[in-house]
Amino acid sequence: MIIPKHVAENLPRLRRFANSIRGLYGFPVFLVGSALSGSNPSPRDWDLRLILPNEEFTRHFGDYEKWSHEGTSGLWTDIRWKWSDECVKLSKQGWRECGLNIDFQIYPQDFADLMFPLHSFPRMQVDSRIMKTATKTTPQVDKYNPSSSIVGVRS
Q1: Could you give the residue ranges of the DSSP H alpha helices within the chain?
Q2: What's the pLDDT at 145?
Q3: Neighbours of 17 (CB within 10 A)
Q4: What is the span of the domain harbouring residue 37?
Q5: Which of the 8 DSSP states describes residue 51?
Q6: Angle at the Cα of 99 (from 93 to 103), degrees rounded to 5?
Q7: Tell me, what DSSP letter sits at residue 145?
Q8: For a pLDDT cut of 90, what percent of the chain falls above it?
Q9: Are strands 46-52 and 102-108 parallel, antiparallel or unpaired?
Q10: Looking at the whole model, is its pTM more than 0.85?
């Protein structure tokens, strides 16, 4: 994968933050959205996503199907408020640690796969834990050289 120059320049800060989240939750953190585009060198925000297995999401926040329905209906219960509070907390933490406008959200796997399929919405894992390739565009990280994910830089 050719990583856009603006992403490569910010990757160390993003990676430090993503590693702290990976350590907390135990699952990969992905950069998604317009920041991955080489045609957007000054993204308004940096979309980071934590995608949890459905059972893990339920353990942290409550039933993921009810969470999804509440997002559609607008009739929020403690499930959706707890999720929202955690996303806001982690977004603010990301702003402080990275100096970037971080939009951090946590999704259950089924929701992420349905709403943001990999073939249409690329994801780049930013934490430095060894990863499995999610798509052909996901960079690989050598466990002995985490900076190896920068295989090319596009201006």
Answers
A1: 5-25, 54-61, 64-73, 78-98, 109-115
A2: 37
A3: 25
A4: 3-26+33-140
A5: E
A6: 55
A7: B
A8: 71
A9: parallel
A10: no
> What pLDDT was estimated at residue 12?
96
Nearest Cα to Cα of residue 99 among 149, 50, 46, 37: 46
What would the mean pLDDT of 37-60 be, rounded to a whole number? 93
Burial of 154 (0-12, 13-18, 19+ CB in 10 A): middle
Taking the C-alpha atoms of residue 101 and residue 74, their distance in angstroms, rounded to an integer, is 26
Rg of the chain over CA atoms, in angstroms? 15
- As for how many domains the chain has, the answer is 1
Query: Percentage of residues in the chain with pLDDT exceeding 70?
Result: 83
Residues contacting residue 81 through CB under 8 Å, at least 6 positions apart:
none
What are 85-119's pLDDT values in tens digits? 999 999 999 999 999 999 999 999 999 999 998 88
| 122, part of any domain | yes
Structure tokens of 41? 């060198």
Whole-angstrom distance, CA of residue 149 vs CA of residue 147: 5
**Which of the 8 DSSP states describes residue 140?**
P
Is 94 among the domain residues? yes
